[in-house]
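[Discussion] Sanity-checking designs against the backbone

I'm trying to build intuition for which residues belong where. Below is a structure token string of 222 positions. I'd appreciate it if someone posts a full sequence so I can compare it with mine line by line.
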């Protein structure tokens, strides 16, 4: 079992500005981004219905459903607008420095993402900091909040659970399942939400200060 400290990350919403990317595509395809909240509702439904589906197709089907609710039928380019745009979605500005700091402190880094291999590879290039591995939904046939990503993470890394902390922006996709699995999770609360019944190990508005939060979650002297 590997004893090096591990920090695993959600990508979209945590490291990459998912909301900005989705909203821009909704404006281009549907004329406004008023359906962003509805997109948040529909996408997890499709992921639960089709756990083995490629994320590009999940995004296309979600966009189609949104358009149908507005009486629109999309052409091929429009339905694929999200998958085409995702590689250009912006990285949050503090992310590269925060991740570089973790690597300098001896952390090994992983991404656990509800996406496809080509999409996550493009986003990791944009982030510009090496990760030891990335686990994507379309390769394991499981979308978070199901537990498949964390199961695959431990199988592939041999990480000691006592030396692992997860980091994510979504109460639904990340903090909730980590609660169920007993994995400490640092909640990156970029939207100023309330945690409800979720129990994150710590809460930060962005990745600034993440190293100290991880040390505290692992019981490591700072």
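Best answer:
Here's mine. Compare freely.
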């Amino acid at each position: 079992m590997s004893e090096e400290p591990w920090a695993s990350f959600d990508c979209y919403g945590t490291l990459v500005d998912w909301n900005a990317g989705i909203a821009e595509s909704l404006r281009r395809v549907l004329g406004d981004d008023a359906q962003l909240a509805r997109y948040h509702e529909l996408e997890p439904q499709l992921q639960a219905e089709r756990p083995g589906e490629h994320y590009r197709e999940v995004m296309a089907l979600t966009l189609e459903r949104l358009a149908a609710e507005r009486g629109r039928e999309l052409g091929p380019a429009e339905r694929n607008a999200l998958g085409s745009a995702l590689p250009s979605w912006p990285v949050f500005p503090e992310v590269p420095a925060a991740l570089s700091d973790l690597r300098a402190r001896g952390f090994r880094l992983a991404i656990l993402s509800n996406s496809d291999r080509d999409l996550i590879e493009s986003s990791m290039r944009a982030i510009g900091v090496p990760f030891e591995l990335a686990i994507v939904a379309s390769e394991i046939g499981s979308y978070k909040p199901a537990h498949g990503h964390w199961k695959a993470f431990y199988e592939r890394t041999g990480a000691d659970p006592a030396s692992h902390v997860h980091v994510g922006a979504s109460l639904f996709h990340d903090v909730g399942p980590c609660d169920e699995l007993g994995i400490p999770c640092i909640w990156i609360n970029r939207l100023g939400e309330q945690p409800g019944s979720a129990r994150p190990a710590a809460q930060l508005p962005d990745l600034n200060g993440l190293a100290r939060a991880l040390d505290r979650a692992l019981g490591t002297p700072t």
